From TrEMBL:
UniProt KW Oxidoreductase keyword: yes
Record family assignment: Belongs to the NifD/NifK/NifE/NifN family.
PROSITE patterns reported in the protein's UniProt record: NITROGENASE_1_1, NITROGENASE_1_2
Domain of life: Bacteria
This protein's UniProt keywords: Nitrogen fixation, Oxidoreductase
Record's keyword annotation contains Magnesium: no
Listed GO MF terms: nitrogenase activity
Name of the protein in its database record: Nitrogenase iron-molybdenum cofactor biosynthesis protein NifE
GO annotation, biological process: protein-containing complex assembly
Originating organism: Desulfatibacillum aliphaticivorans
Family matches, as InterPro entries: Nase/OxRdtase_comp1, Nase_comp1_CS, NifE, NifE-like
Amino acid sequence: MSSIPILKAREAQIHTKGEKPFDMTCGKHSVAGSVSQRACVFCGSRVVLYPIADALHLIHGPIGCAAYTWDIRGALSSGPQLHRLSFSTDLRERDVIFGGEKKLEAALDELIDQYKPKAAFVYSTCIVGIIGDDVAAVCRKTQAKKGIPVLPVHSEGFKGTKKDGYKAACDALFKLVGKGSTEDVSPVSINILGEFNIGGEAWIIKEYYERMGVQVVSVMTGDGRVDEIGKSHGAALNVVQCSGALTFLAEMMKEEYGTPYIRVSYIGIDDMAKSLYDVAARFPDNPEIMERTRKIVREEVEAILPELNEIRKDLEGKKAAIYVGGAFKAFSLIKALNYLGMKVVLVGSQTGNKEDYKTLQEMCDDGTIILDDANPLELSKYIIEKDADLFIGGVKERPIAFKMGIGFCDHNHERKIPLAGFRGMLAFAREVHTSVTSPVWQFCPARLGNKEE
């Protein structure tokens, strides 16, 4: 399918392992007209902050931006459901001309009085950056009146990429850190960063650590609470899940409070076990923690191994394509798919850096396509050329997979089942198996066309 063209300006962000020495461009703004799969700065900030369930989330901008809400990227809560409500100042033409600060202040007053949140986040959108509303000033005034943190999130969509939204969110989140008492925080304690509890993963991971004997002070931000974030500076260690979203916050806490951090991944058997062992190793004065950890890993793996081995028999030799937000997640997915006997023929991310792509290049077989900031045309082209059987991505990649007539696994926004942890690995394997082996694909025109060729 070499007839499918690639934009000349995109060639430096596409690498085929084995064809030439690794030299890949990344971290740049999307090429105009390429219909990038990336999201905007505002989207990145919402991904990070929205799971804080007892906070008010108010979008200062046109009503269209409010469409990116809880139901697009779910985040389960064990208590408050305030984060599920989408609030907007709904700026209109008159507000654009005369300014929207009064409207913002009135909205904050009304919502805080009605819902009594622990804190409020105010998200600036593109139009706010253009008309110059002083959102920070309005937040300071409201905070003084209402006595709760009211935090501006400088997330004007045009300012950069989704990764810049992560930074804007961390800047706002950091203002909550250090505000609470640490009297009940154990010396053997951690914060879990970068886990958003899309399918209940935060509860699974938290349970593992607590069974080990490690206190989880806060999860940032899945099933998050403002008060827990306030005392997070008392934890002995920050454990940053594979997403790069909260690394900015981990760096801030290290500089301000001296809190060390490690990076982990909870996807797949190997990385999940390593995540637990790495945390246990940080508390050498408590050797019983490592003993408990070994027992947990052994019991959890023994429980899922028989079914995984059966699934592997059907998936052996099948080919997979991966396109995710952060490249670190792709590392774990490659290992998990390899464990199931599958071969990765395409892998890419929205926000990876040069080191990430170098690592991917080392992990993949010759001929694997590595993409930065891909678009639908490129993804379709390489799925066809590599004859992939499965596509792992998010809500924007799902239509591509189905148009190509191949199985799909949502590892991002809309899924309802946990895919992290040992139980999550089994759920992931079941979903991949069900999708790849479905008999429906034999009737898809795209697959029929390939057979005829």
